[in-house]
Amino acid sequence: MNTVPPRASRTQDYDPEEDDAYYTQRPHTSAIRYTQPRQHIIQRGNKRIVIHDEPPPKQPKHWLVFIGIGMIVSLLLWAGVQMLGTWWSAYQLDATYGFPRTSQADAVVGHDDSTDHPTHFILTNLRGRVDIIELPGGQVAHARIYSGPTIVGDNPGLIPVTAEFEDVNGDGKIDMIVHIGNQQFTYLNDGTQFKPQQ
Predict the structure, then answer these.
(1) How far is CA 99 from CA 57, 73, 103, 153, in A?
(2) Per-residue confidence at 178, pLDDT binned at 50, 70, 90?
(3) Which end of the chain is more exposed for a tag (fewer CB within 10 A), N or C?
């Protein structure tokens, strides 16, 4: 009696890793295929014109281009430094003298004052007009206002006005020297008030 062995189940014996279809197959050839750029050829008699569909190769930049860019950057840097310097100067003047430009000083000039109570001076530049306010001995009730010179030029209201005190003419009285930018004006002390030097 022949007995037939039971059939093996295909699902039990199948191993996908042993199947060649499971992996990507490479062609069995040593030839390598290169793609050629598309081009159109126009032939007219002995002339042959080839038109390529791709852009032409990039040309290297000329050395003068880099020099030109460097010069433009240098010019912009120089202009930026100039603008920064101008802004910084204006900022320093604003921080020191405010706006309108104002400065103050104390000095003993012999007008009802003493070392304990010196005369207080306030110098202002209001849109190019200089005013000097004197408070003898610091007393507001005896205040005197001197009209200073008018400043002429570009942005006259931005120029600071300061004062220093010394005996200019050697008469033993302290005189006032007013500085406006690079100029100075002397006011002589007559013992009670200041008068512009003639």
Answers:
(1) 62, 36, 11, 18
(2) very high
(3) N
